[in-house]
């Protein structure tokens, strides 16, 4: 299925349909922990099946587990029973460690487990596209260098950061190609850490590497959807839109109506109901009101697809998820 055509059809329709970043809450329906889910390709495929079957989402999205790629490089992962895995420690702290960093094979860590989950889901889900989740280059580099320390390195040792970025980009292209070969219709590339950079720094340390991934993977049948949930997105829109992604997904830190007002009509934008505040922490009444408000402000734009602002937490209440889709339907 051509996800790009499907998204544009939904955006231009008088009756909008949504594509939230929805995967981890399926653990509740499966009756399994998040820790078990992230370590099982079969459970992940079942999670995508449940989302595709039981919601009106435009596509099934694989787990947005942004620890997978860093783990492949050798970073330490902390697994918790019902929390998304997190990277701990610092793998690269200086130029020597950056130069010594090896681009891993896909067999390292859990990467192939995630690829197999997408392959299995694609075989079983026949009525909706399947979108693979993947981290973006700067966000991956930040997990290897530590998300705070990489900011200092950008100023003090920029070449060290570029060395890491080049290597992670090579890996992400390889990983994305494996997802493509497995049958995925597209990739949601999450680059949240770039959202706290200044526009100039994003142009140096994020955009060129994101574009390398997009140019290597995207074609007429395979789409790359770019996600950035940072609050500096409005200041870097020109650079973001120059990436050439099939669509752009923004978080609830920004005013979606203001973003759309600055967006050319031929560029597709998605977002941005608060995942923590509404899907996880809200009520049926509050998320219904928030979604209706978003649709009132943005629904008339024919280049807009409603979504969550970011990955919906595992503990999100299913009655809130259902209320979101009901509010989209009107």
Tell me briefly what this model is.
The chain is of the alpha/beta class. The protein is built from 17 helices and 9 strands.
Identify the overall geometry.
globular
Task: Please estimate the helix content.
Answer: 40-55%
Largest sheet: 7 strands, parallel
Spatial arrangement of strands, main beta sheet? 1-4-5-6-7-8-9
Question: What's the number of extended β-strand segments?
Answer: 9
The stretches of 5 or more residues where confidence is low (pLDDT under 50) are: none
Q: What is the rounded Rg? A: 19 Å
Strand-residue proportion: 5-15%
Please state the structural category.
alpha/beta
> What is the distance, rounded to the nearest whole angstrom, between the alpha carbons of the first and last residues?
26 Å
What is the number of helical segments per DSSP (H or I, 4+ residues)?
17
SSE arrangement, N to C: HHHHEHEEHHEHHHEHHEHEHEHHEH
Mean of all residue-level pLDDT scores: 96
Write structural notes for this entry.
The protein has 330 residues and is of the alpha/beta class. It has 17 helices and nine strands. The strands form two sheets. The protein has a seven-stranded parallel β-sheet. A hairpin with a 2-residue loop joins strand 2 (76-80) and strand 3. Helix 4 (41-54) packs parallel to helix 7 (111-124). The model has no long low-confidence stretch (mean pLDDT 96).
């Amino acid at each position: 299925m051509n996800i790009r055509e499907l998204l544009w059809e939904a955006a231009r329709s008088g009756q909008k349909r949504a594509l939230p970043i929805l995967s981890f809450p399926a653990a509740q329906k499966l009756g399994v922990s998040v820790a078990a889910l992230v370590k099982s390709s079969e459970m992940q495929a079942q999670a995508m099946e449940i989302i595709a079957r039981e919601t009106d989402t435009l596509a099934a999205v694989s787990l947005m587990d942004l620890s997978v790629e860093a783990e492949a490089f050798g970073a330490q992962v902390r697994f918790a029973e019902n929390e998304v895995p997190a990277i701990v420690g610092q793998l690269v702290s200086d130029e020597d460690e950056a130069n010594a960093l090896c681009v891993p094979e896909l067999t390292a860590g859990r990467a192939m487990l995630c690829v197999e989950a997408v392959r299995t889901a694609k075989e079983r889900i026949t009525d909706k596209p399947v979108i693979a989740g993947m981290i973006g280059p700067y966000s991956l580099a930040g997990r290897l260098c530590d998300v705070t320390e990489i900011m200092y390195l950008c100023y003090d040792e920029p070449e060290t950061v570029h060395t890491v970025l080049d290597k992670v980009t090579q890996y992400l292209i390889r990983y994305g190609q494996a997802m493509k070969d497995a049958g995925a219709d597209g990739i949601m590339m999450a680059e949240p850490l770039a959202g706290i950079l200044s526009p100039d720094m994003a142009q140096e340390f994020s955009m060129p590497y994101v574009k390398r991934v997009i140019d290597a993977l995207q074609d007429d049948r395979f789409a790359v959807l770019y996600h950035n949930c940072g609050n500096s997105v409005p200041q870097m829109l020109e650079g973001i839109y120059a990436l050439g992604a099939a669509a752009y997904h923004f978080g609830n830190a920004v005013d979606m109506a203001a973003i759309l007002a600055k967006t050319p009509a031929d560029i597709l934008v998605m977002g941005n109901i608060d995942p923590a505040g509404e899907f996880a922490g809200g009520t049926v009444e509050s998320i219904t009101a928030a979604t209706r408000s978003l649709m009132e402000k943005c629904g008339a734009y024919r280049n807009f697809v409603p979504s969550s602002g970011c990955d919906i937490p595992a503990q999100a209440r299913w009655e809130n998820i259902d209320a979101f889709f009901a509010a989209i339907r009107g």
